[in-house]
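Hello K.,

You asked for the raw outputs rather than the summary table, so here they are, unedited. I folded two proteins back to back in the same session to keep the settings identical. This is the first:
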Amino acid sequence: MNLEMNECGSERLMARTEDIDRASRSLKAMSHPLRLKILCVLGDRELHVQEIVDAVGTTQSNISQHLAILRDKGILASRKDANRVFYRVSDARTLRLISMMQEVFCPFN
């Protein structure tokens, strides 16, 4: 474990380059307002595309494009059941991040 002293003298963990790269890719994918809204709507639930469309309030085509980006970046997982595709956040750490952002930016919701 690599530790470095910052200006205040406290220790901090030096992140590995691959961890920084993965975090950067994930945050970039989540940075679009509509994609962030999709993640907030999903939370810890699994929803099919039409439920997401209804909750977010845009076209299915638009939602599908953003869902594909989030899925391709590994942020969402999907499964197909008959003619419906269900989506869920694939990693509990992403759920924690969304929860923290809600606390910071939406404290009264």
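The second followed immediately with the same parameters:
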Amino acid sequence: MKKIVLGMLMLGLLSTSYAQYGVIVDYKKETWKELKKKTLYVVYDDEGTSTYDKALKEAVTSNWNFNEVEFINYSSYEEKQKVETNFFLLSVNQTVSAAGRYNESLSYMYIIRGYKKGAKKGDISRFPQLAAVQSGSNDREIYLPLLIKHLNKSIDEVVSGKITSLGANTKKLNVNKRKVKSKRLYLLESDLNGKIKTEADLKEGYVGEVSVISKEELANKIKAGEDAHVFFCARSSTKSYVHIYNAKTGEEYYNSFNLVSKKWPAGIIPYHFKKWNK
């Protein structure tokens, strides 16, 4: 899979911040109304033949209805990237933020627009960013339909005026986290850890209905758009980002992170689910 490394410290930090509190970077209605009239170029990582590319195409085809899309390879992207009126959905497999303890290495999907000077070796640090979605790295293909659905919904909310700023989206999330327990929550065994080792452990501390299921079962529930909540964890070497999405609507109900340590490992931990109990 092609790795695109972002070259600026500030970009990495901003991307992390936006991914914590919402996928939208540009909250101007005009920006998205412009995209509505254009084609969104979805850039393959590997000529459209890899497992990721096939999953991405299926996810976009089934869950993206904001505007027309066209799937292109990386060579075509390099030809089109200097046109400032072009828009791209680009998978970025590594984001470098800061050296040391808080260095990040995560996968994202970005919506960007063209930049007149283009980029060398995939560096998009100077490209105008419109949206940034954490896509994780652990079994991420099964979550792509859900992430694309959430991205589409978030853009619709900006265009309709329902969400006007990062602050407004944060307020909505603060309300939504109380509703996590309103639907059954699904997660994978890989989301468990040394603190929460089994489904029974989780049920001892979490008041809502919860099931630990297989990867195949979760993939089917996401594709079917079941009216249930899905636990999604994007892990870096130092942080564990936890998201809860509704598989039917794409609505996000929770978005937070913890520093990874022996006390607070990556995945499901009381720090997160105690907030959902309230």
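Confidence is low (pLDDT under 50) at residues 5-20.

Happy to rerun anything if the numbers look odd on your end.

Regards,
P.
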